[in-house]
Amino acid sequence: MWGMCEWKGGREGEGAKDLCQMEQTCSKLSECVWRTFSGFRPEDVWFDVAFFRLLSVRYLTGMVDKRTLEKYEREAKEKNRETWYLSWALDTNQEERDKGKTVEVGRAYFETEKKHFTILDAPGHKSFVPNMIGGASQADLAVLVISARKGEFETGFEKGGQTREHAMLAKTAGVKHLIVLVNKMDDPTVNWSLDRYEECKEKLVPFLKKVGFNPKKDIHFMPCSGLTGANLKDPVPECLWYTGLPFIPHLDSLPNYNRSSDGPVRLPIVDKYKDMGTVILGKLESGTISKAQQLVMMPNRHTVEVLSLLSDDVETDDATPGENLKLRLKGIEEEEILPGFILCSPDNLCHSGRTFDAQIVIIEHKSIICPGYNAVLHIHTCIEEVQITALICLVDKKTGDKSKTRPRFVKQDQVCIARLRAAGVICLETFKDFPQMGRFTLRDEGKTIAIGKVLKLVPEKD
After folding, report:
1. Which UniProt keywords apply (predicted)?
2. Could you say which DSSP state residue 63 is in?
3. What is the pLDDT of residue 136?
4. What whole-number distance in Å separates Cα of residue 276 and Cα of residue 423?
5. Are 213 and 221 within 8 A, CB to CB?
6. Ranges of each domain in the chain
7. Contact 39/121 with Cβ under 8 angstroms?
8. Quick check: 58 pLDDT over 70?
9. Burial of 202 by CB count in 10 Å (0-12 exposed, 13-18 middle, 19+ buried)?
């Protein structure tokens, strides 16, 4: 199971808001720091649902009360799903509850003493990886939850398992910090064994290092039990060999992720619907947005006005980078917006087009890739079919040197610079200018075959 989190330095002097409208009031904070988790887990290890939904964390932090959990337990029991009840707080539609699998990206919130967190519960089953990528694109911090129970970790990690692909996609999506929770340490077959903990760790670290995580700076391991909440908030007496902080205190100890509020507005659209007007959802990547502000929707260049603004379902007058927003807009109809469109500053529009040059790393592909190859592009919240129209050069993975001649093909584990053309007009930026809008994934036949970054936007010929 995976989880991810995006964070942002808060506004000084503003108290943490009670996002769940609970009777209890939250203590005022001198600084509110926002995080966003996006969860995804290896397929078929369904019992980890109980953890990553982080219902145990939400319960421990007071964001889900006992009465609500009892209600979920009764409803789950009526459907012979009593062991899945903790997952129902984020699996809100009937299909997800019947199947016991996340399909769409769920959303929830919890607070600690110092920070505010948003959970984006993304699917982990291989059939719904495109939805998982959408959740990952909104996150900065990842939480990988693996099972210490014999056989379950190995199932998710072996070739074809989802742990490997999710780790790579998380890094590609821009995740900067990774927490690995070794779950089910209380299982009778494990019994808080240091040997089993180290075994899982030793198998996982080389792969995480290979996909780009620095084991010393980017990764933190900790044992836990998601079902009982052990080592989530308080230390575990049975696990004296672990001397680090429990999960929630560790989250509080992480440094803030600073984003510039002075840059142009960039808000990739995740979803849209009608509700007394046109409503859009997305994460603000750059700039600030205020009520009554005039903005432009790209690529169709509609000028819109912000009628109302909600940050994690709480109405506010303005928002800064990192916040997950819900905006009600004037000047555009719901059917004129698609996921992947970008809300921009009028004086600094994002780039749009169909053709661009990119550096691509071929991750997994049995045959060679030649010009004319088609794949599905995932870039920020946009999904579009693309074709590799030209291979420009190969890039040496160690030295970065570029070949002087154009290659006829590329194959697995090679790096190249290629020209790609999308089937339709898309919004994108160079990786150098806006990393979150310039990194992408290529998928084909249900597999991630390559990752890349946009180097140059190619103007369309008249």
Report:
1. GTP-binding, Hydrolase, Nonsense-mediated mRNA decay, Nucleotide-binding, Protein biosynthesis
2. S
3. 58
4. 33
5. no
6. 2-253, 266-344, 353-458
7. yes
8. no
9. exposed
